[in-house]
Specification:
Elements (H helix, E strand, L loop, with lengths): L1 E2 L5 E7 L2 E9 L5 E7 L2 E9 L5 E7 L2 E9 L5 E7 L2 E10 L3 E8 L2 E2 L8 E2 L3 H16 L6 H5 L4 H9 L9
Antiparallel strand pairs: 1-2, 2-3, 3-4, 4-5, 5-6, 6-7, 7-8, 8-9, 9-10, 10-11, 11-12
Length: 173
C-alpha cells in the first residue's frame, strides 16, 4: 500500500517502483480507479468513479479511455461504444433519458461525422437546458429573427428533435 502526502492511496501491485498490474487508487479529491496499470498508468480494463457519481467502465491505454467503454452520468445519461484517446470515437450509443437516444458513428465526440459531413455535436446537459430555455423564450416572444437557433447552428437538428419529441426518449436523426 502506498500513501501520498496529499491523502491519496494506492493498494495494489508495483513493478520497478511504478503501479503495474491490478490495483485500486483513491485520490484526495474522491476519485477512484480500480483496474489494471502498466508502468504507472491506467492500462487495460478498469472502472473510474468521479466524486460526482459519474462512472466509466472499460478499456484504458496510457491513462486514456481507449477501445470499448461505457460512461454513465449521475443524471441517467450514458454512452456505450468506442473511445479513442479519451473521447467518443467509433460506433456507439448516447442516451439522455426522456430527451434523445442516438446510435451510430461518433468522431471526436461528434455524432454522425463522416469524411465530408459536419455531423451533429451532442450537447452536454447544461447546453440542452440553456438552449431549450432560450428556444422557449424565442417562441414565447414576438421577435422576427432566429438569432438563438442560428447561433447554435450545429446543435439545431438535435434541439428541433428534442422539441418535437420531448417525452419519447428517442430522436431519429
Amino acid at each position: 500500500m502506498y500513501y501520498w502526502v496529499n491523502g491519496s492511496v494506492y493498494k495494489g501491485e508495483f513493478k520497478n517502483g511504478l503501479r503495474d498490474g491490478n490495483g485500486v487508487y483513491q485520490s484526495e479529491l474522491g476519485e477512484k480507479y480500480e483496474g489494471s496499470y502498466r508502468e504507472g498508468k491506467k492500462h487495460g480494463y478498469g472502472v473510474f468513479i468521479w466524486p460526482s457519481g459519474n462512472v466509466y467502465k472499460g478499456d484504458f491505454v496510457n491513462d486514456l479511455r481507449e477501445g470499448y467503454g461505457e460512461m454513465s452520468w449521475k443524471d441517467g445519461s450514458y454512452y456505450k461504444g468506442q473511445w479513442m484517446r479519451g473521447i467518443q470515437n467509433g460506433k456507439g450509443e448516447f442516451l439522455v433519458p426522456r430527451k434523445y437516444d442516438v446510435k451510430g458513428v461518433f468522431h471526436k465526440n461528434v455524432y454522425g461525422k463522416q469524411q465530408n459531413s459536419p455531423g451533429v455535436k451532442i450537447p452536454n446537459r447544461s447546453q440542452v437546458k440553456s438552449l431549450k430555455a432560450a428556444s422557449m423564450n424565442f417562441h414565447d416572444s414576438n421577435t422576427r429573427h432566429k438569432k438563438i437557433l442560428s447561433k447554435n447552428n450545429e446543435l439545431e437538428e438535435v434541439i428541433k428533435a428534442i422539441q418535437k419529441n420531448p417525452d419519447t426518449g428517442t430522436v431519429k436523426l
